[in-house]
Design goal:
The two termini are 21 Å apart. The protein has five helices and no strands. By secondary structure, the chain is mainly α. The chain has one domain: Four Helix Bundle (Hemerythrin (Met), subunit A), CATH 1.20.120.
Length: 115
């Protein structure tokens, strides 16, 4: 299907732009800002042992990732949220590590799509 890859559904991004009546660039900027802030919250929560904060931040990040149907990111965030809610710090930390393999390439694709 054109415009769809494993990380990012460009069709969803275009639909969002049309639905919201805004430029794709603005949507990408918002999504990148939201996801970056959520990842920072996850990191702070993990560092401080606050798994409820980790779960809340992972959930917020999932909401942003759902907007563009970013499946690999959604899978890792779901695992992270689940581990945090189950009070499994090792699992949450492992899932957070996996985000480092998923988020940077997605972020690059989003920034490219905004141009």
């Amino acid at each position: 299907m054109p415009g769809v890859d494993a990380d990012l559904d460009l069709g969803k991004l275009s639909e969002l732009a049309e639905l919201l009546g805004t430029e794709r660039t603005a949507i990408v900027r918002t999504l990148v800002t939201e996801l970056t802030a959520a990842l920072a919250r996850i990191d702070r929560g993990l560092a401080g042992g606050d798994l409820s904060e980790v779960a809340a931040a992972a959930h917020a990040a999932r909401n942003s990732a759902l907007m563009i149907d970013a499946q690999p990111l959604l899978r890792v965030l779901k695992q992270l949220e689940t581990c945090a809610r189950r009070d499994e710090p090792e699992g949450a930390s492992a899932a957070r590590s996996r985000l480092d393999g998923v988020w940077p390439p997605l972020r690059s694709k989003l920034e490219l799509a905004a141009r």
